[in-house]
User: What shape does this take?
Amino acid sequence: GLTYSNSLATVGSYDSLSGDWTILNMPSNSTATLVITAGVDQASAGWAITNTTYFTFVDRPDTNTLNNTSSVSMLIRSVDLGMGKRISTNLIGVTNLITYTVSITNFGPDTALSVVVTDSIPSGLLFTSATVSVGSYVTNTGLWAVGDLANGQTATLIITARVDAASGGLMLTNTATALTAGLGGTNAGNDSASVLLNVVGAD
Assistant: This one.
């Protein structure tokens, strides 16, 4: 469920393959620290993972064996973010206005934290306005900072643009994508949604 990245020991050395931390000598009342950094695997969403540390060898009698083991547990967040996209019309003439309605829904089971969606206006359209139900949309970057989405919550972005006069005869594709890396996404199949616009050329 986790992939080792790196480690730092204040004393001794750590072998990531065996999991052995060799400390050698420790004076009385001293403390040694090992910090291990690992990445959460994509397939681990929804898992409960427990990490346990224990002594494997000491060369002196231990007077208290009750504190020779320590464990920590964590629950890996699991979310399914689904993108939706609609267009006011699929066939339009030059210089007319077009409206895209973008939606993102968290199908759970956990809350999705700091959600970001990318949706850049395609070349051939001129941005007019954007309205969001939550968060903020930046035209220059095409990034919609949604924020946290609870299980079952839907957020909406409405973008209005004008068809450029030189876009006659073009087929314009607009795609919205949820940036799910690190969010615990379990279903990459619905992370993006696209619509196609056919611009009618002038006679």
Observations:
- The first strand starts at residue 2 and ends at 9.
- The chain is about 0% helix and 55% strand.
- The mean pLDDT is 91.
